[in-house]
Amino acid sequence: MENLTQAIARLKREKNAVVLGHYYQRGEIQDMADFVGDSLALAQWAAKTEAKIIVMCGVHFMGETAKILCPDKKVLVPDLKAGCSLADSCPADRFEQFIREHPGHTVISYVNTTAAVKALTDVVVTSTNARQIVESFPKDEKIIFGPDRNLGRYINAVTGRHMLVWDGACHVHERFSAEQLAQLKRLHPDAVTLAHPECPEAVLAQADVIGSTAALLKQAVAHPERTYIVVTEAGILHEMRKRCPTTTFIPAPPVGAACGACNECQDMRLNTLEKLYDCLRTESPEVQVDPAIAERAVRPIRRMLEISARLGL
Ligand code: CIZ
């Protein structure tokens, strides 16, 4: 009798479907994915796949990005309710008003945005390429950056720019506490602290390495002999432990939780193996993007992919 993972593998084959999984997904979902990566890698993969169906195991904006890049394909997300607090912190009508109040600015938006916000944007970035894309503009370029205030502040600091930054944040990364991290570092004085740039400034100030999930993973793979404190959504630990089975990874806990607790995004966890199976079986729920919005949103996404390819990212 076929078990769940065998049934998923069979449906993928029968339906010519590719399953893309984000590093923040449940481990068992990552294990069923044909490709696991960050938003940049998932968008790059979606843009080139020849599969008929893309199942995006991630949150809604990731499915939208794939649909915008592949309007003729069926794009599914196992649970369409999987949203993103950061994308929600930047409603398109308010962002449009902000842009109108600051004319003459180039608009750079983080990938964690709705299609409607991307449609207002000149170039999209992810945490893997944000610094390089900002630096690809002249030093005196007037830039609006949205929606993550922590990433925007960090990019301003490392590039010496003065971008106007939208006041949004990811509630998962905002839950890391500088005090608890300091305590954890005292318990593990030899550990290297890896932090995501969506973390608050006081947390980033204590990090040894700041980068996207892909960059933090690369650091661990390059130096598996070290011990790491990991300050980002805990799903990344699955791939880190797979790639570095003898390395000690210590997740930083969310504020108020005991040492050893993981900081997890509940939206990312809405996708389960059962829902992945159902979604392949029924070919639903499908991501839809208004074609008029998609037509405008595709340009800044393609621009990101072109600049990233040129930079070898
Ligand atoms: O870019 C992404 O996929 C996100 C949301 C985080 C990261 O650094 O991978």
* SSE string, helices as H and strands as E: HEHEHEHEHHEHEHEHEHHEHEHEHEHH
Distance between the termini: 44 Å
Report strand order across the widest sheet: 2-1-3-4
Query: What's the tally of helices?
Result: 16
List ligands, each type once. (~{Z})-2-methylbut-2-enedioic acid
List low-confidence stretches.
none
As a whole number of angstroms, the C-alpha radius of gyration is: 19 Å
Total beta-strand segments: 12
Give average pLDDT, whole number: 97
Q: Please tell me what the overall shape is.
A: globular
Largest sheet: 4 strands, parallel
Proportion of helical residues: 40-55%
- Structural class computed from helices and strand pairing: alpha/beta
State which percent range the strand residues make up: 5-15%
Describe the structure.
- The chain is built from 16 helices and 12 strands.
- It is α/β, with parallel strands linked by helices and 313 residues long.
- Strand 7, helix 9 (149-159) and strand 8 (164-165) form a beta-alpha-beta unit.
- Helix 1 (4-15) packs parallel to helix 15 (273-282) and helix 4 (60-69) crosses helix 16.
- The relative contact order is 0.17.
- The mean pLDDT is 97.
Name some characteristics of this structure.
single chain, 313 residues, alpha/beta, four-stranded parallel beta sheet, 16 helices, 12 strands, globular, binds (~{Z})-2-methylbut-2-enedioic acid
